[in-house]
Amino acid sequence: MTQIPVAGQDRPCGLRERKKARTRAAIRRHALRLFRANGYQRTTVEQIAAAAEVSPSTFFRYFPTKEDLILQDDMDTQVAEAFERQPAGLKPAAAFRAALREVAGSFSQADFDVLRETTALIATEPEVRARATDEFVRMITVMSEALARRACRPADDMAVRTVAGALIGVILSITLPVDDLPGDDQALTAMFERLDEALALLEAGLPL
Amino acid sequence: MKAPGAGRIEGMTEIAGASQDRPDGLRERKKARTRAAIREHALRLFRANGYQRTTVEQIAAAAEVSPSTFFRYFPTKEDVVLQDDMDTRMVEALERQPADLSPLTAVRAAVRDAFASYTEADLAVIAETTLLTMTVPEIRARATDEFARTIGVIGEALAKRAGRPADDLAVRTAAGAIIGVMMSITMPWHGWSSDMQRIEDVFGRIDQALALLEAGLPL
Fold first, then answer.
1. Which of A3, A43, A197, B154 yields a CA-CA distance of 20 to 30 A from B39?
2. pTM of the full predicted structure?
């Protein structure tokens, strides 16, 4: 499916896009390895760039800050893409739920490891947590754009932004509490199950 | 809920028959006054000397409390800016809504009531604290924890209303959706200004967004 070029969308379909996605993944992989070895604070962007064999300015083309490398896990992009592939008849919450299932279902063991690691860093590194506020705004915008394309409405449409806000708010209500960090695969799987249940509740109109 | 919430619950036990933690006891009213005084002096000092250069010691001295009292009310300097008590007002207003309203309808009515209760001075404080949140990185950093706290506070209020435990998934989900919808309106901060008209406009849009949530998010 990813081989079929779709005009007007920035899916990683072209050769150049695939190369970009590989570079991005390599930068993240090396960064996480260096964070594990030397700690988040003590690892510099220069060291990460050198390990990934790119220049620091290339690093910054992919990630505006070191914090973004942790926060922008590309899961939102993957979910947004999967979301747009869902049947048009599904309501937004249902389509989002299906998209999240699809993405979580496609995760390899390595993806799970990365997700657990980045979740822990978001909870423990103040700089990353600080940047997280901006990341929420970005996530709402990414989802608004996907919803707008699906509903053929402008992305700044009030109804579109409201749905995006509700979806992201539901996700945060499950993922933000620091006290139950997913320490192992089982906990992470349980978190995805809770997310799925929560989205089902949103789909059902938030019965209480 | 952090220290102030715990205080409210503690104070409640003194009032026989009071089943809600509204600040209606004498001790509660005194606490609310102290809290307001600390915020007022803090904002005045931030205006005069800048946020970064104002210390907790200076704020405490101006409000005539000890630094340790300051920290009983606000866990960090950032929280003076972030904990705007909007959530407390909303929770109180929610408790006053008729029991037969659906949770989302009651929340929307509560938010309207809370907005209507704002004085000019309250709105000026909101304008000021929003600007600080936008511009001071330390405050922005703490904002993530404030979202989590607010989801918790709203969740507790909804749980009480629905007679469910506070960690109930349906309760948390509803609280998350409510806060998320509000974030989607207030967080594109670049559009913010201290203009009162704009704040009223934001309130109006929050009401509209909550109406959409109530209507099952039609698209």
1. B154
2. 0.82
**Rounded to the nearest 10 degrees, how much is the dihedral formed by the CA atoms of A143, A145, A150, A154?**
130
The topology under which CATH files domain A65-203 is: Tetracycline Repressor; domain 2 (1.10.357)
Q: Report A:92-111 residues touching B (Cβ under 8 A).
A: 92-93
ipTM: 0.83
Is A120 touching B (CB cutoff 8 A)? no
* Helices B86-95 and B137-162, axial angle in degrees (round to 10): 10
Domain A11-63 has CATH 3.40.50.1820: no
Nearest by Cα to B145 from A124, A58, A18: A124
Contacts A91 to B, Cβ<8 Å: 217, 219
Same domain, B174 and B115: yes
- The whole-angstrom separation of Cα A49 and Cα A56 is 5
* Contact list, B205 vs chain A (CB under 8 Å): 158
Residues B90 and B144 in one domain: yes
Domain count, chain B: 2
Tens digit of each residue's pLDDT (9 = 90 or more) over A67-110: 989 988 778 788 888 998 999 889 889 999 999 999 999 988 88
Please write the tens of the pLDDT for every residue from A158-198.
999 999 999 999 999 998 876 667 778 888 888 899 999 99
Structure tokens given for A46: 């220069």
Asked whether residue B8 falls in the same domain as residue B115, the answer is: no
CA–CA separation, B82 vs B80, rounded Å?
6
